[in-house]
Design brief:
Number of strands of chain A: 13
Helix content of chain A: 40-55%
Number of helices of chain B: 10
CATH architecture of the largest domain in chain B: 3-Layer(aba) Sandwich
Number of helices of chain A: 21
Structural class of chain B: alpha/beta
Order of helices and strands of chain B: HHHEHEHEHEHEHEHH
Oligomer: heterodimer
Strand order of the largest sheet of chain B: 3-2-1-4-5-6
Strand content of chain B: 5-15%
Number of domains of chain B: 2
Number of strands of chain B: 6
Largest sheet of chain B: 6 strands, parallel
Largest interface: A-B, 69 and 72 residues
Strand content of chain A: 5-15%
Helix content of chain B: 40-55%
Distance between the termini of chain B: 22 Å
Radius of gyration of chain B: 23 Å
CATH class of the largest domain in chain B: Alpha Beta
CATH topology of the largest domain in chain B: Rossmann fold
Chain lengths: 605, 291
């Protein structure tokens, strides 16, 4: 029995793979068998590790020759295993952490189920339910049932099941119904893959009441909502002195508190909020293009801090300033922003058209309206922002609003302003450019980096607040090989150099062997020798310069000779060997499948 | 003299080889490359791709062969990214994920900051099983890859939603250190679906003789060792780095041709010297026998 079972597994697996290869209808059998093979291959890693452990422990225990090497091997093995398995130093994966949201355990079964009339094609002629909605969707009694709230990939996943308008219209209707109450939209969501209920920001008493009303008769769900409400109201404080120009952003006035020596936040912080607190809320002065006199004054002030700039440094400085942003270019881009875009009809609208007898259904609707030209006042305001050092970003936005700049264009201006470096960032980048071109004294470097350093310190403090305000959901979700982790350190500074060195040592041994063994002792050895010389010489940079004259006046380069050798002699020889091996494999495999050869089971017969 | 050569201590040969590699490295010896037909075939194959085509980037090498293969891997990534194709990175070696990360960090992130992970490129990571993995994903990618290397559900990755198997790929680009590598991709992916799947590869010099029998029907192009990488790198630089042809990130292969050329010349010299010794010995022996 001990031998029969592995024998049967081998025979069955092999025969299935042979059938799947030759008969397309059984292709999926081959997939199944191969997946099992891959699972077993993964398990083989564990067995291999165990075997390595056993062999080296025995060597150490018996104090055999070279037991010290075994000790090193085992130590390295254990170190990599522990670092890799426990993911020391790796941060949780951002894709599973849901920054800015509080999460609580909330099984999908607790969520309400919504339905809409709808019929789907039979399962034999439609694809299987996509994994993303498999647990939420069911079809019964001429209705589509969906548990939880429709979000993200809902429409795409359902559309993939059937392309008929009637089905897609039913799904649209269901998607409209399967939503949280209006007052909670954008704040609450359910994550079916994680079995969690998520809430964005701080939950107000009104939000809590609306959420509880949904799960009135489910005590466990209500308890979970209580925990969620508490989590969203958790206060985090860090000791830091905010910049003098710091102002709490409008959308965060209820969540953020600032004192001269601390900043506190209620609830989690999203990445957008973190970035806003770190930069925009500080109202740092932005770097604007400098006129010639202003540039000269800047250079004079910098030179006052230490030695005069060299000619190369002055050129680098000019290059940097000339490469800063230009408002004229932005105005050109802004003028084309906000053009009306074509709309799209819903599937229900198209279905209605179809039922009314329309034959050619078109989903896109033409764009309505025209692109309003920018006014001279708006252009002048943007130009004056570039030319007036005192004008702040907030001033510009206020005045543009008063000048009736359209919504899309205002959004484009806001995005543009966020990309402009602050004076601290500009001076830091300039410092790097000047250092590349020559030396700067320490006072000069300090003068250039002063603002950047204080801005960086504030950014670090906000980052600290962001991390502390976040409750980690999956602490082990990070990548084991992330840069900076102990695993990465061992890989980069131990494993990689060792492997590369070992491989590189080949060159030395091959050279020695070539000198001693590569000799024209007979005709076969001479042919091999000549071939080796051609292949070796072709892989040098001098091969291109060599032309070999052939009988008949033809001249060929080394590249052609190399191609000829590889494609004709090498291919012919290799094919003969490969065909021989293939025949050998076929006959051996047949013997194994039929149980004639059992040597792989450890048998002697 | 003959006695000296007959009893030459191999450490002198080691020293000679070390000098042959060190001096050109230190002197940064570099010559222009003229692309050969094999490199041109690989370049043309990728050049035929259209923006949005799906390309499987199978990075089957690890640190042991990184010195020979990473320059061609970088050039492949640069060329494919410049063609605006969708890149699906995958590896059959346990240490391969680090090689993929390096390529992404050194080529795609700095040169193409507008490319979005999951929309323009994705790292599907490592799966154990060698050719068994190829055998499955050639008909059913999701049978093995339910998530990417970061653990994101494959259904949530936009560029993976319409990929059922490797047969949906327009091209496979394989960088192969040893086993499993190009040979396994050719045998288990391309050969059963010949005409449907195309593949170009890059391999170490010692692997090349085993792969040439597959060219050009089953293997549509092959870069061999540093020489092939240098030729291909020259083509990529000429076409896609005109504004910055001296970008040090895309000069590795050509830089390494200097030490390789001198080392190969030393090898040729040693082989010839060995044969001089051999014939000299034989002549002395024959004279001795005659007298």
């Amino acid at each position: 029995m001990k031998r029969t079972i592995p024998l049967l597994i081998t025979a069955f697996g092999g025969i299935v793979l042979v059938i799947a290869f030759f008969i397309p209808a059984f292709e999926s059998w081959g997939e199944e068998a191969s997946i099992w093979f891959d699972i077993l291959a993964a398990i083989a890693f564990i067995l291999g590790g165990g075997n390595l452990f056993k062999v080296h422990l025995k060597t150490i225990s018996d104090r055999k020759k070279g037991w010290g090497f075994s000790a090193v091997t085992l130590t390295a093995f254990l170190l990599m295993l522990i670092f890799g398995l426990f993911k020391f130093g790796s941060l949780p994966s951002p894709s599973t952490e849901f920054y800015g949201q509080s999460l609580v355990e909330f099984p999908l079964d607790w969520m309400p189920e919504y339905d809409s009339p709808g019929v789907l094609r039979p399962s034999e002629i439609r694809p299987a339910f996509p994994a993303s909605i498999r647990r939420q969707l069911r079809i019964a009694d001429g209705k589509i049932y969906f548990r939880g709230w429709a979000s993200g990939t809902y429409a795409e996943a359902l559309d993939s099941l059937d392309d008929q308008l009637a089905w897609r219209c039913s799904c649209e209707r269901l998607g409209e119904v399967a939503q949280p109450p209006v007052e909670l939209r954008g704040k609450v969501s359910h994550l079916p893959d994680h079995n969690k209920l998520a809430f964005r920001g701080v939950m107000s008493p009104a939000d809590e009441q609306a959420l509880r009303a949904l799960f009135n008769n489910q005590p466990d769900a209500l308890k979970a909502i209580d925990r969620l409400a508490l989590a969203t109201r958790r206060k985090t404080t860090i000791a830091v002195t905010p910049p003098a120009s710091f102002q709490i952003p409008e959308g965060l006035t209820s969540a953020v508190e600032v004192t001269p020596s601390s900043i506190a936040v209620t609830g989690p912080v999203s990445t957008d909020q973190r970035d806003e607190l770190a930069r925009a809320a500080c109202h740092y002065p932005l770097a604007k293009p400098l006129s010639e006199p202003a540039r000269a004054a800047f250079v004079a002030e910098l030179e006052q801090q230490g030695t005069p700039l060299t000619t190369v440094q002055k050129q680098a400085l000019d290059r940097y300033f000339n490469g800063l942003w230009q408002m004229d270019l932005f105005i050109q881009v802004l003028a084309g922003t906000g053009a009306p875009e074509p709309g799209r009809k819903t599937s229900c609208e198209l279905l209605e058209e179809q039922q009314q007898g329309v034959v050619e259904l078109v989903r896109e609707t033409p764009a309505t309206g025209t692109l309003e030209p920018m006014t001279d006042e708006q252009r002048a305001l943007l130009k004056s922002f570039e030319q007036t050092p005192e004008m702040t970003a907030e001033d510009l936005l206020t005045r543009l609003k008063a000048a009736h700049l359209s919504g899309p264009r205002t959004a484009a201006v806001e995005s543009f302003l966020k990309q402009i470096p602050t004076i601290g960032e500009r001076n830091k980048a300039l410092c790097v450019e000047l250092l590349k071109a020559g030396a700067l004294s320490k006072p000069q470097r300090d003068w250039l980096l002063k603002d950047a350093r204080s801005q960086y310190a504030w950014r670090l403090a906000v980052g600290d607040l962001f991390v502390k305000a976040h409750t980690v959901v999956y602490p082990w979700s990070g990548d084991y090989s992330e840069g900076g982790t102990p695993f990465d350190w061992v890989f980069t500074w131990v494993l990689q150099p060792l492997m590369t060195t070992t491989f590189a040592l080949l060159a030395f041994y091959v050279a020695s062997a070539a000198f001693r063994a590569f000799r024209a002792k007979n005709l076969e050895a001479t042919l091999l020798l000549v071939t080796a010389l051609i292949i070796l010489f072709r892989a040098t940079m001098f091969a291109g310069a060599v032309q070999v004259p052939l009988p008949g006046g033809t001249v060929v380069g080394m590249d052609r000779i190399y191609a000829f050798v590889m494609s004709v002699f090498n291919t012919a020889g290799n094919r003969a060997i490969m065909i021989g091996i293939a025949l050998g494999i076929a006959s051996t495999s047949l013997k194994v499948l039929l149980g004639i050869d059992r040597s792989y089971l450890g048998s002697d017969d | 003299m003959l006695h000296f050569l007959q009893t030459l201590d191999r450490r002198w040969i080691f020293l000679l080889m070390a000098v042959a590699v060190a001096v050109p490295t230190w002197a940064q010896l570099k010559f222009p490359e003229t692309p050969g037909q094999f490199s041109q075939d690989v370049f043309d194959e990728i050049e035929r791709l259209q923006p949005g085509d799906k390309v499987l980037m199978a990075w089957d090498y690890d640190p042991s062969t990184e010195g020979e293969l990473s320059p061609m891997a970088k050039s492949f990534a640069k060329h494919c990214a410049a063609k605006k194709v969708k890149l699906y990175f995958i590896t059959l070696l346990p240490l391969g994920p680090k090689m993929i990360e390096k390529t992404i960090d050194e080529v795609i992130r700095p040169d193409y900051p507008d490319r979005v992970y999951g929309e323009d490129f994705v790292n599907l990571g490592f799966k154990s099983g060698n050719e068994g993995v190829v055998k499955v994903i050639i008909t059913n990618l999701r049978g093995l890859y339910t998530t990417d290397a970061r653990g994101i559900n494959i259904d949530q990755i936009p560029m993976c939603r319409d990929v059922k198997s490797v047969q949906d790929m327009k091209l496979i680009v394989n960088v192969s250190g040893a086993y499993p590598g190009t040979k396994e991709w050719v045998q288990y992916a391309v050969t059963p679906y010949q005409g449907k799947i195309r593949i170009v590869g890059g391999c170490t010099g010692v692997q090349a003789p085993l792969l040439f029998p597959y060219i050009p029907t089953q293997l549509n192009g092959l870069l061999v060792g540093i020489k092939g990488a240098a030729e291909y790198e020259q083509l990529v630089v000429d076409h896609y780095l005109k504004e910055n042809p001296d970008d040090p990130r895309f000069g590795d292969a050509r830089n390494r041709m200097g030490p390789q050329s001198i080392a190969h010349l030393v090898m040729i010299f040693l082989i010839l010297l060995g044969n001089v010794v051999f014939f000299w010995e034989r002549r002395v022996r024959q004279k001795g026998e005659a007298s």
